[in-house]
Amino acid sequence: MERSGASLYGDPCGGCGFEWSVTPGEAIRVVEELPTRFRALLAGRTGFERHPGLSWTPAAYVSHVTDNLRNWAERLAGARLSGAVDVPGYDPDLVARARHYNEIAPTAALWSLEHAVDARAASVTSALEEGTVLQHATRGVQRAEDVARNNAHDGHHHAWDIERILRHTTPV
Ligand SMILES: [Zn+2]
After folding, report:
1. Which of 27, 77, 89, 96 is most buried, judging by how many CB atoms fall within 10 Å of its CB?
2. How many A from CA of 12 to the centre of ligand 1?
3. Residues 120-144: tens digit of each pLDDT
4. Which structural domain, as residue segments, surrounds residue 115?
């Protein structure tokens, strides 16, 4: 079984400090605040900055978080609307290459994120109310609240990545 969540990243996460004990409601709020948070981080920056240890730009991380939210919102919707609870893994790096994340205009990436957050909030809220449970091919049982926390961590973790990139590129 593939490790995920607290067993993969540590509790709190060894990188971004995310605490996995957050309630589903708190996890939803973390995601709802992401567009404002990312917009503030990118204010006055190009969004195309680079860090030698990271392969993506700040704007690329925004696109990754967006696609991750869309993917999981769609999966929860599939389980809820049609009983499709069995879901496969997916390769975020392959998605990044196919969509050329590093070349997407940062303002467009932020625009997409806002729509993804709205759609995802509706999907996760409904899934939590209905007790939706996914059966993930490599992670096993993923309850709606697990998805809520994983999505919140993904956003929080990549905000931390963006901060690292921007700190690296800030003249001191
Ligand atoms: Zn983290």
Report:
1. 27
2. 8
3. 999 999 999 999 999 999 999 999 9
4. 5-168
Protein residues near ligand 1, an ion, with CB under 5 A? 13, 15-16, 18, 157
CATH number of the structural domain spanning residue 124:
1.20.120.450
How far does the centroid of ligand 1 lie from the alpha carbon of residue 17, in Å?
A: 6
CA 19 – ligand 1 centroid, Å: 9
Residues 6 or more apart from 9 whose CB is under 8 A from it? 15, 18, 153, 157
Q: pLDDT for 81-91, tens place per residue?
A: 999 999 999 99
Domain count, the chain: 1
